[in-house]
Prior knowledge:
Elements: E1 9-14, H1 24-31, H2 37-45, E2 49-51, E3 54-55, E4 68-73, E5 77-78, E6 90-93, E7 97-102, H3 119-127, E8 133-134, E9 137-138, E10 141-142, E11 151-157, H4 160-172, E12 180-188, E13 195-199, E14 202-204, E15 212-214, E16 224-234, E17 240-249, H5 256-263, H6 287-296, E18 301-309, E19 316-320, H7 325-347
Parallel strand pairs: 5-9, 11-18
Antiparallel strand pairs: 1-4, 2-3, 2-4, 6-7, 7-11, 8-9, 10-11, 12-17, 12-18, 13-16, 14-15, 16-17, 18-19
Amino acid sequence: MPVEAALEGPVELTVVPEDAGARLDRWLAARVPQLSRARLQALIREGAVTSGRATIGDGNLRVKPGEIYRLVVPQSEPGDVTGEPMDLTVVYEDADVIVIDKPAGLVVHPAAGHTSGTLVNALVAQCGDSLSGIAGVKRPGIVHRLDKDTSGLLVVAKNDGAHHSLSEQFKSHGADGRLERVYHALVWGALQRAEGTVDAALARSTSNRQKIAVTRGETGRRAVTHYRVLETFPSVRGDVAASLLELRLETGRTHQIRVHLAHIGHPVLGDQVYGAGFKTRAAVLSGPARAALERLHRQALHAAGLAFEHPRTQRKMAFSSDFPKDIQAVVDSLRLMKRDRGSQAKRGPVKPAS
């Protein structure tokens, strides 16, 4: 039977006849689901696995029936990320995972230029001693990310087992039914179809390494985004000024949604990187709608839905998040434009004064 308890200390495992000939690292990964195979391979190299009095240093070793292996998991070392208390919106938390409703403006992981003030810094402070080791270090496990200025739901692993399970789910991008990610976005203009798919490979832009671009060369990575139009909003001229979309990812590339939508001519409202050429489109909005968009200061993109299989219980868990106030203010102003135009249409054209 697989070991269920959190691992801190020695574990003894006996090879059963049906496992004969299995590679040691794979056999251990099947028996100890709390640890990723990569972590177990590292422990083997570090001398953490013994059989009898012999230390086993080769994960390729083939196991034999009746052999007893002893795995000693060292206590996790403190991480090198400093905890910084922040007012996080925690949607759900248990011993394995924590689901956060990330605000816009918050960087997920420390990097050059953002060594502090990140979500990881906040999680180290939030979770404290409840964090278990991931690759032998106490730190939260980031299995997916949101752009700095994209808000919404994000799940983080709190131990190695959860990290392994969630990573596998995100690698499949929902193909096996375990994972679902739903985004909502406001985009410029009217899409040709109510539902559709953008299938266009992405790579680093050759002219600007800070940007991602659609590429037709062999260097690109496959990227697929599915969209559905939820609502459209008329302009002051009567055509469609903007659309509200639901988006689902089949792949998870950097900036994927923003690049794909810009590629088909419908960039996200407020996107200063991929929609800069559409700034003048604000002229088709009413005064209140233009003002709401100017106050947004970021792309109108929100991770509205997240579902995954819990790493320990295998129970499907689903979460949803409404637009934050800044995007909702833009939506409300666009709906007000829509109502006003509807009322005007019912009254008929205004007759000129005689």
